Amino acid sequence: MLTGTCHCGATHWTLEGDPGPATACNCTLCVRYGTLWAYDYENERIRVHGPHASYTRADTAEPSLEILFCPTCACVLS
Ligand SMILES: [Zn+2]
């Protein structure tokens, strides 16, 4: 299991089981975040606990990804 928390500690996440290979995405958003991503579905193997907000691309009709972040410290969660 992997676990993580935001900077202020208000929100944390868990990923159950083997996370598999992590991805260093080179899109314009992920390069700015500087993250490594492990993928699964929220409320299946990935659970986010505590307050969180989301961002999806506004310039795409059907955005395929949603970025979750803490509304207090703005730390990216998943
Ligand atoms: Zn926070």
Provide structural commentary.
- The protein is mainly beta and 78 residues long.
- The chain has one domain (2-69).
- The chain is built from one helix and five strands.
- The protein has one helix at 28-33; strands spanning 2-5, 12-15, 46-49, 53-55, 67-69.
- It is globular, with a radius of gyration of 13 Å.
- It starts with a strand and ends in a 9-residue tail after the last strand.
- It binds zinc ion (ZN).
- Residues 6-8, 10-11, 70, 72-73, 75 line the site of zinc ion (ZN).
- Zinc ion binds next to loops.
How many alpha or pi helices?
1
Radius of gyration: 13 Å
Strand order of the largest sheet: 1-2-3
Structural class: mainly beta
Order of helices and strands: EEHEEE
In this structure, how is the largest beta sheet organized?
Answer: 3 strands, antiparallel
Task: Briefly say what this structure is.
By secondary structure, the chain is mainly beta.
Would you spell out the secondary-structure blueprint of this structure?
Blueprint: E1 2-5, E2 12-15, H1 28-33, E3 46-49, E4 53-55, E5 67-69
Antiparallel strand pairs: 1-2, 2-3, 4-5
The structure holds zinc ion.
Zinc ion is lined by residues 6-8, 10-11, 70, 72-73, 75.
Identify the notable features of this structure and list them briefly.
78 residues, two-stranded antiparallel ribbon
